[in-house]
Amino acid sequence: MTEQQIRDKIRQYSHFAPPDKLRIVTDTSEFMSIRAGDLLELDGHFYLIRGEEIEGRFGLDGEPKFWVKKAIDLESGQAKVIKLVFHESFLMRLGELQIRCFRSPHKESRILDKVRDHPHFMQGFTIRDQVGNLVRIIDKIQGTRYYDFINDLNMDHEQYFHEIFPLVFKNIVTCIDAIHELHKNGEVHGDIRNDHVIIERGSSVYKWIDFDYTYEWAENPFGVDLFGLGNVLLFTVGKGFFNVTEVARKGGLWEKVLAELTTDDMSLFFSHRIINLKKLFPYIPQGLNEVLMHFSKGAEVFYEKTSELLDDLGTCGYYPGVTG
Amino acid sequence: MSVVPGATAERTLIPHAGGSSGSLADRMEHSMKSKVLIAIDHSENALKAVDYVGRILSCHPDVDISLLRVINEPSPDLMPDSNDRRRVVDQMKEETLRFMETVGVRLTGCGIPESRIHLKIQTCQKVTSVAELILHELRTGQYGTVVIGRRGVSKREEFLFGSVSNRIVREAKDCAVWVVE
Question: Given this model, what pLDDT does residue A210 score?
Answer without folding.
Answer: 96
